[in-house]
Specification:
Number of helices: 7
Distance between the termini: 80 Å
Helix content: 55-70%
CATH class: Mainly Alpha
CATH topology: 434 Repressor (Amino-terminal Domain)
Order of helices and strands: HHHHHHH
CATH architecture: Orthogonal Bundle
Number of strands: 0
Length: 145
Amino acid sequence: MSDAENRTASDAATPGADEHNWYSNDTATFGDRLADAREHVGMSQEDLARRLGVKLKTLTAWENDMAEPRANKLSMLSGLLNVSLRWLMTGEGDGLPHPDDARTMPEDVNKILTELRQTQSDLVRMADRVGRLEKRLKTAWSAPR
């Protein structure tokens, strides 16, 4: 066995040895991180798709790494899933704990976090709507009369 193979074998046998890299781009994809984060907060694919305002097949494509969300949906995802945008994209930054370190969240805390995520999602949707209305107003105002 080569030195690299020995290190890999010993790292695999040592609990927590790959903790820092568990969700890195070397070991996980965007879809892996998205699916794990969704499951970590106890949300179904259907529920997350509804909250994001996308079709279930769109979310499934993201989790299967067949497509990638646009920037506004990435922002909503990070808020709804309580992970940083950087972690969602690269596996670095504030995200999920190593699976062995995950704790079960008390039900009352989970309910508060769920309500907070829904409010964040609503705010993002409202901000998008305000932006569209501003654009329409500018277009209407600058049109020849």
